[in-house]
Amino acid sequence: xxxxxxxxxxxxxxxxxxxxxxxxxxxxxxxxxxxxxxxxxxxxxxxxxxxxxxxxxxxxxxxxxxxxxxxxxxxxxxxxxxxxxxxxxxxxxxxxxxxxxxxxxxxxxxxxxxxxxxxxxxxxxx
Length: 126
Ligand SMILES: [Cu+2]
What we know:
The chain has helices at 2-22, 24-29; strands at 34-37, 42-43, 46-49, 55-59, 65-73, 76-79, 89-92, 97-100, 107-113, 120-125. The chain is α+β, with helices and mostly antiparallel strands. The chain folds into 2 domains: 1-30; 32-125, Cupredoxins -  blue copper proteins (Immunoglobulin-like, Sandwich), CATH 2.60.40. Strands 3, 5, 6, 7, 9 and 10 form a 6-stranded mixed β-sheet that branches. A 4-stranded mixed β-sheet has the order 2-1-4-8. A hairpin with a 4-residue loop joins strand 1 and strand 2 (42-43). It is globular, with a radius of gyration of 19 Å. 17% of the residues are buried. It binds copper (II) ion (CU). The site of copper (II) ion has 5 residues, from loops. It comes from Ktedonobacter racemifer DSM 44963. Residues 34-126 form the Blue (type 1) copper domain. This is Blue copper protein. Keywords: Copper, Metal-binding, Signal.
């Protein structure tokens, strides 16, 4: 009987572990200032934050992205960091999330995915 209880306890802890892993990305989505990445776009494409805050980027797809300072203009990549922009150069491998910033200066800042033409994000800091 003791053995049976031990086995049941083992199985229930495994189940709890799996549930915790499955909700990992959902927890990440609940953070403030969250922007999602799909295959080729940010949603939303623009976010407004307060000075000193970070942007939480959640990659919803099993695809890698490289996010950096700059923008796509007519399908041409234009690297560039505005004065006061947070330095951004982050690699995502798929179904992952990372925070960028903090952005400590007010202004409008362009970020882009260097991999996917047209994949732009505007961060407006108030
Ligand atoms: Cu991308």
